[in-house]
């Protein structure tokens, strides 16, 4: 089918994702974001700007969302339901609460709309390059229909299971990443205090069984120069995602320790006024510099 596509939420990740969808899908893409600068940038790569959520939903067969949390996702979906006409499918590419995602799916299904969760992993550079990991909660038919469009934005598209399963995979990915970064930060603090050069420490760990993506990429790029830009993935966003993991653990009655300890560390960073800084700034808390 010659679907008309919609995209709502043109932030740090959504801007790159929508750009790739506009350039690669060979479909009409209508977009909305309250930020006029983001809208202008989307138009420059081939999208068509619309003035509201309802306007996007009134034209698009499939609407993609990239929003801060389930709160915004629920609000946007209510606006889509109130519009002049409705999309067939809503694809939530945000990182959202699993239980509320499944409740929302039932709500939309009753109105004739299929909700798919397709959260993304990897950094904003991957969003711009179209090399994201996308974990999808959808039935086989819907997954097959969406895969060509998702492939415009990602290189690894995983069918996770039913609605909500995509969120579970994404949340677990981020939980492991944050715990790993906590461990790397502690290793740096101990090594530096013991007189080891940080670059030597990290390069050596990368040669052994302590190697990881977090070590080779994020930690090396931030903790070595000791720079934590605010336009990256902040402490407050990491706390939001880790809270989702802790809620899943509580719902499943799974006892956990390291995830909670990492959450406590992030909370201390937030309390120290670092909530907007790139989350590896946790090293400053560990070393008593916050």
Radius of gyration: 20 Å
The 3D shape can be described as: globular
Most strands sheet: 6 strands, parallel
Name the helix and strand elements from N-terminus to C-terminus, one letter apiece.
EHEHEHEHEHEEHEHEHHHHHH
Helix count from the secondary structure assignment? 13
Residues in β-strands, percent: 5-15%
Averaged pLDDT: 96
Instruction: Give the N-terminus to C-terminus distance in angstroms.
Output: 55 Å
Structural class: alpha/beta
Spans of at least 5 consecutive residues with low confidence? none
| Helix share, percent | 40-55%
Strands in their spatial order, largest beta sheet = 3-2-1-4-5-6
The count of DSSP E runs of length 2 or more, i.e. the number of strands, is: 9
What does it look like?
With 290 residues, the chain is an alpha/beta fold. Helix content is 54%, strand content 13%. It is built from 13 helices and 9 strands. The strands form 2 sheets. It has a 6-stranded parallel sheet with strand order 3-2-1-4-5-6, with helices on both faces. Helix 5 links the parallel strand 5 and strand 6. Helix 3 crosses helix 4, helix 8 crosses helix 11 and helix 8 packs across helix 12. The longest helix has 29 residues. It starts with a strand and ends with a helix. The model has no long low-confidence stretch (mean pLDDT 96).
